[in-house]
Amino acid sequence: MTVRAAQYRWLRAFPWLWLVLAIPAVPMILGHALGGADAADLLHPSGEMSVRMMIVAMVAGPLGRLFGTRFRALRWLLARRRAFGVAAFGYALLHLVFYIFDMQTLKAMLDEIGAPGIWTGWLALVLMLPPAITSNEKAMRALKAGWKKVQWLVFPTALFTVIHWGLLFYEWGPALVHIAPVVLLHVALFVKSSLRKLRMSA
User: Distance between CA 67 and CA 76 in Å, rounded?
Assistant: First the structure.
């Protein structure tokens, strides 16, 4: 079975994956619903979970190009990377819901939308929307070659997400640590490609 075919087989054969990906959201939602946690306290964990899901989805492709598909765990990840991407969008929406509860009014939200730490978060969410809604086989067939261009929006999404995180929570270190695997893998791919070209030209 090809990796592409496996990307859709998991949806039918492994519905448990959605349950696993949803587990971190349960204590957040229950904590707020039962009054044990303020919405403001849940902004960081929901946003951080969105970033983590996004990074898992983003590292799958580079890992596959670096090491091939001979490792079973990597084949598993490649076949399910879009699930992690959709989960990242789901946690971003949960992050938004907690933000709305925290701000309480539209006026309060509009008053601070011009702040760099806020508009970067809104922009990241908007950029995340097209890849999320096109992460299915029907969209792939409809968009054809354009589908990959849509999916490349995850890179500016990740960039603005890191900026949003750093400016809003003043945690540049953790934000950069989260994005580091993506950066390092792409550097490794660049080095690998450069070395191949040098060998071919020698």
Answer: 14
